[in-house]
Amino acid sequence: MILTPDGLEALRSQLIVSCQAYPGEPMRDPRTTAQVAASAVIGGAAAIRVQGLADVQFTRTAVEVPVIGLWKDGHEGVFITPTLRHALAVANAGAHVVAIDGTRRERPDGLSLSETVAGIHAESHALVMADCGSFDDAVAAVEAGADLIGTTLSGYTGERPKTEGPDLALLSLIASADLGKPLIAEGRIHTPAQARQALDAGAFAVVVGTAITHPATITGWFKGAMQA
Q: How far is residue 123 CA from its own chain's centroid?
């Protein structure tokens, strides 16, 4: 299946589930990721977002919905699919959409965001999701040719404060500008009510990860509340 920009319409007002585990955790296994992804699809996820080449490959065989893939390399600065090499590897692993750092920061390979997006489009069939941290990032990502823009990095790049929940103000700001590309809400969406608020703020679709697929964190929330 090749996902086209027109095909993104099927994701309007839908839930995208991010299935990721951190290095060293028991669930940090691509087979487990694929099983969690398949379970999320049973629950109604319209697309899946996963990190790592093997995770993309295993998840592609486990689900029949679009897979958004990324490759985290490092822990600071530009580390979400940071270079064109990383992006093409994710596309070749089978991702329908490649999520990349969509900020205006300098990239490790020296390429501009526009050059990176153009390279992905020229050398693969994948669409590009730009993970942005601000309104200016979103504008620049659209100008660079990204197919989707996300609020993934809001609160992590120094341009905006880290909100307790989703950055609804940023969502509203980008939505009101009508940039012409699907706006994906992602980041700190921990409850169904917050997911609804993100849609009401103008999101095209909503990504939820930790609150659905990271049991260590969810357990910590309950334990913390009980000990408060």
A: 21
Distance (Å, rounded) from C-alpha 152 to C-alpha 164?
Answer: 14
8 A C-beta contact, residue 134 and residue 125: no
Nearest to 206 by CA among 165, 178, 163: 165
- Dihedral through CA 182, CA 48, CA 217, CA 157, nearest 10? -40
Beta-carbon neighbour count of residue 187 at 10 Å?
26
Look at residue 135 and give its three-state secondary structure.
Answer: helix
Mean pLDDT over each residue of the chain, to the nearest integer? 98
- Give the span between the Cα atoms of 181 and 88, in whole angstroms: 22
pLDDT (mean) for 101-106? 98
Contact 141, 112 (CB under 8 A): no
Residues 6+ apart with CB under 8 A from 177: 135, 138, 139
Q: What pLDDT is stored for residue 17 in this prediction? A: 99
Residue 196: both structure tokens together:
């609804």
DSSP state at residue 226: H
Q: Find where tokens 């669930």 sit.
A: 27
- Structure confidence at residue 163 (pLDDT): 97
Q: In this model, does residue 1 exceed pLDDT 90?
A: no
